[in-house]
Amino acid sequence: MALGASSIVRRYGRRAALRRASLGFGLFLSVKLSLAAQTAEPVRVLMLGDSITAGYGLAQAESLPARLEAQARAAGANLRIIAAGVSGDTTAGGRSRLDWALADKPQAVIVALGGNDGLRGTPPSDSYNNLHDILTRLKQRNLPVLLAGMLAPPNLGADYGREFRDTFERLHREHPEAVFYPFLLEGVAGEEALNQPDRIHPNPRGVEEVARRMLPAVQELLSKVQGG
């Protein structure tokens, strides 16, 4: 009987040791994967835009690229948004500086241009040609794109506003590979409490709202990044 009991104890001890080893390995693997996620290189996302992207009238930490990055990280995304906004820039300006902006070797691009075209009454056909060229060149580089649309100010008339809006809808149809966010300032444009005194540029609260609404589209963009 004593020998049998000893044998049982030995078997139990081996099983307990195996369980402890298994648990220890599982904990080690969990910690290793967690550390790997924390130290992985963030996905580089270029945000090509105008004064809204440049953070006009705001501290850098309050700008749209900064807040969009912060909200995306809080939601679990590992990314770094490269701010490439130039105040006053048009679709023609973005087109001309695209190669320079890509020098940081982004893995995805957010195109947020067109607001100044609308303010200047630029022919929508010109805006279309510029944005079509930008999207085509990014596609040739195999870069996933998020196209943020824009609306024209109402003082330019209903016909112009409709044609301007349709420019982005046409681009969406012709570039179905791009993630499409129809209106960059959705939920913020025209809201006095969410804009600076000029009623054009979002204030910090407005930027937070823009970022919150854009976040699902940005997450879709990240899902298209190779290896993402």
Report what the structure shows.
- Keywords: Signal.
- This is Arylesterase.
- Residues 48-206 form the SGNH hydrolase-type esterase domain.
- There is one protein chain.
- The protein is of the alpha/beta class and 228 residues long.
- It folds into 2 domains: 1-40; 42-223, SGNH hydrolase (Rossmann fold, 3-Layer(aba) Sandwich), CATH 3.40.50.1110.
- It has 9 helices and 5 strands, in the order αβααβααβααβαβα.
- It has helices spanning 2-39, 51-54, 64-74, 91-96, 98-101, 115-120, 124-140, 158-174, 204-223; strands at 43-49, 79-85, 108-112, 145-148, 179-181.
- A 5-stranded parallel β-sheet has the order 2-1-3-4-5, with helices on both faces.
- It is globular, with a radius of gyration of 25 Å.
- It starts with a helix and ends in a 5-residue tail after the last helix.
- Mean pLDDT is 88; it is low at 25-38.
